Amino acid sequence: MSYNAASVLLSTQPMSSSDKASQAAPIQTSLSPTVAVIGAGIAGSSVALALCKLGVPVHLYDSASGPAAGASGNWVGAFHPHITRGDSPLSQLTRLGFEHTLRALEGLTAQGLLEKGVDWDTPGHLQTVPPEEADRARETLALLNFPQTLVRWAQPNAFLPTPLSGLFFPQGGWVKPACWVQANLQACGELLHPHYNSAIADISPLRQQHSAVVVCAAEHALALAPIHGARANTVKGQISKLSCTVKPGVVLSGESYAIAPAAEDWLVLGATYERPVLHLNPTAEADELNIARFKAAFPELPLGDLLDHRCAVRSVWHDRLPAIGPVPHMPGVFMSTGFGSRGLLWAALGGAIVAGHCMGRPIESKLLGKITPRAAKA
Q1: What residue numbers bound the domain in which 292 lies?
Q2: CA-CA distance, 264 to 37, in Å (whole number)?
Q3: Global pTM value
Q4: Strands 257-259 and 266-270
Q5: How many domains in the chain?
Q6: Which of 251, 87, 264 minimizes the C-alpha distance to 171?
Q7: 185, 276: one domain
Q8: What is the average per-residue pLDDT within 285-290?
Q9: Does residue 189 come out as left (phi exceeding 0), alpha (psi in the -120 to 50 range) or beta?
């Protein structure tokens, strides 16, 4: 399979007649053309910006006192495509999302709302592979035949002192999510009407006030817009911030990631993957796990003192794909949620998809049909 054949080009993946029939029709309403967005994190702010770019006034609701209060408040996060042997829908979606993320960050930078090298950057991303999986991973890379500008094989010690080989993504990067959220909201301009300290327990009043409602509320999404048979899991992740004197230069990942923005004197490790979620208090055990995973992959890279730690929850849909699009049996209600640990990859894509639906111009793609909010298969 060549890269061109595996690329996600929406215009070349038309939907069947039955697929089109299942999509939401253009919103027909006598209400004022405003949209309510629930959730002021990276998902909600991306939807808000996509709508405001189309001239649609947006009312943004969040229970917190300001934006980026949940996982979007993490100090920094990584983004890069995902590679699987069969080039699964998840992998295709990560490549598509990666393109949208880069385009979004570059656009906000061009407006002077973000600064590359300070708020985000693309130094490259090294994903280490356990020795027992290395041969299969290398075979997968050869089978998919992606261009080396997207991903290439990295031998041990090729970029950093590590006994592990892996995948290197030359355009892989990092971003400070809260900065991205703030930039999105600034770019919305006067069309944005934020409502903080506004917990939403029932979307019925919003449906009566606005022409559409978009739920970007992560672990609360299915409570607000129930879908019979749908299932999402809540996962706790703890990240650890340490002082850093020797910077890796690239984003690192394997069992967990390590990110050291060039302009900072710290490095972030994580995140843990904890279920069930019993509390959101940071623990010493989670910090120790983050540090141990880093040292196992990069034993010669020094780490400084622990400076801080932070916990947040992520919502993971039953099939690990996001839930983006119209909610079944709820006309005028949409979702952009279920991103798991890939919110930085799928938020901008989700904004574009939902905005298209709200304007009655949905993007037609069989791939995107797989992420319409859905029930779990029996």
Answers
A1: 232-317
A2: 33
A3: 0.91
A4: antiparallel
A5: 2
A6: 251
A7: no
A8: 97
A9: left
Which regions of the chain does DSSP assign to beta strands (E)? 35-38, 58-61, 77-79, 120-121, 125-128, 152-154, 166-169, 173-175, 192-195, 212-215, 232-243, 251-253, 257-259, 266-270, 306-317, 323-326, 333-337
CA dihedral (274, 259, 43, 152) positive or negative: negative
Residues present in the chain in total: 378
Tokens of 175: 């971003």
Residue range 153-199, pLDDT digits in tens: 999 998 888 899 999 999 999 999 999 999 999 999 999 999 999 99
Q: Are 221 and 215 in contact (CB under 8 A)?
A: yes
- Which of 294, 317, 340 terminates a domain? The answer is 317
Last residue of a domain, one of 274, 296, 317: 317
Q: Which of 3-17, 158-172, 210-224 has the highest mean pLDDT?
A: 210-224
Specify whether 197 is located in the same domain as 224. Answer: yes
How many Cα neighbours within 13 Å face the side chain of 135?
A: 1
Q: Is 275 exposed, middle or buried, given 0-12, 13-18 or 19+ CB atoms closer than 10 A?
A: exposed
**65 Cβ partners below 8 Å, 6+ apart?**
196, 197
Residue 372 to residue 209: CA distance in whole angstroms: 25
The two structure tokens encoding residue 205: 């009043």
Kindly state the average pLDDT of the residues 122-142. 95
Whether 189 and 47 share a structural domain: yes
